[in-house]
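Q: A small favour: would you put together sequence and structure tokens for a protein?
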Amino acid sequence: MDELSGLHGMRGLDGLEGEYSGDGEPGQPDVPAPVVAVVGRPNVGKSTLVNRILGSRQAVVEDTPGVTRDRVAYDATWRGRAFTLVDTGGWDPAVEGSGVLAARVAAQARVAVDAADAVLFVVDAVIGVTDADAAVAAVLRRSRKPVVLAANKVDDSPGEAAATSLWSLGLGEPCPVSALHGRGSGDLLDLILNALPETPMEPFGETGGPRRVALIGRPNVGKSSLLNTLAGQERVLVDPVAGTTRDPVDELIELGGSVWRFVDTAGIRRRVRETQGADYFSALRTERALERAEVAVVLVDASEPLAEQDLRIVSMVIEAGRALVIAYNKWDLVDEDRRNFLDKEIDRQLHTARWAPRVNISAATGWHTDRLVPALQRALDGWETRVQTGRLNAWLAGLVAATPPPVRGGKQPKILFATQAGVRPPHFVLFTSGFLQAGYRRFVERRLREEFGFEGSPVHVTMRLREKRAAASQGRRSGSAGRS
């Protein structure tokens, strides 16, 4: 039986600054959850062990070195205590400073160690100590951080003998564990808790908190560059090769006097079912990040013609019911002729999202990124707008009187009344005596926007027919008259 049956992820994909309330009393400040950095050389099973600790497959795992590249944080609990788990890419101190992608991945791992309260150092017990393992151990000893040494891939009792060779790293007793099968994982977690500072027990769930913003778009449109610019640091790796980001990476950033939680996601290449390997799981995690977000910023490369994939991503946000802002990145690379053509291209191809705020920015230079927060706020305001029932029906009566629904099957349906069934996004239900054609429902939605706003938010208009109920009532009256 899995030793982690009682363990569960709390608020996966949160950043290093993830917080939880202590005892819930009014006025008590939030206590930051302690941070555990998971480090080791490539392909020793770090992400598999992270998934084992979380109790679900949240980190992208593939039997190929170098799948994880950025530092990605998840929240977890064990024995009633909360901590933040930071998965990192493969760390080889020998490549640091070389400027290649592997070196920048290693630099992200070093940043994670610096920010952590404790370190979980994962070593492949089957292969034993390598030069890279010894170099990482030397760095960890100098960091003076508590280190828990995990001897991974010990799948059975005879394999525990191989773990004893890891004593030579000088980091204390290795803990035999099998990330794949869960063997020894409970003992490992007990060691992790012993290495962490004391925190309050039984944290309460997150209520409210920073607004959650997902950065999504095709590969190489500048999502990671934008997050780095907003954060003021290289929070995620940026590389000319498309598809550098694999896991959703988030960061708490203060902009416009408020704290926002921005989530950088993997570029969406095509439909999820058409992808495979690490790209498949990256696409699934992008979809999950969108589901957890409140507003999505769809980045479009303004220097290139709008692609079908751009339109599909916008449609994905609308179908998910999230607030929407469209950011045209690389605007500094667009000449005057292209800008005039782009305006016409946008109006023609993005007609289903004309209500979304548009921002022209340059993630690389930071130009006009200050306009992003007002656009996000407008979109969220529209997403949460509620119209009073009395005002809604008074407006609707005037609309129907001026433009009644078209006749269908020789009968003209009537709109009896309407109500707003929900917000986030706004959802309106029309109670009718007959079927309303899709074109008329779109007409009602368009006029709703003209009257009440809803900038940056999808608006759902559905109907509920009363025709059968009226027919049944008429039948009862006829039967009663016949009996009399």
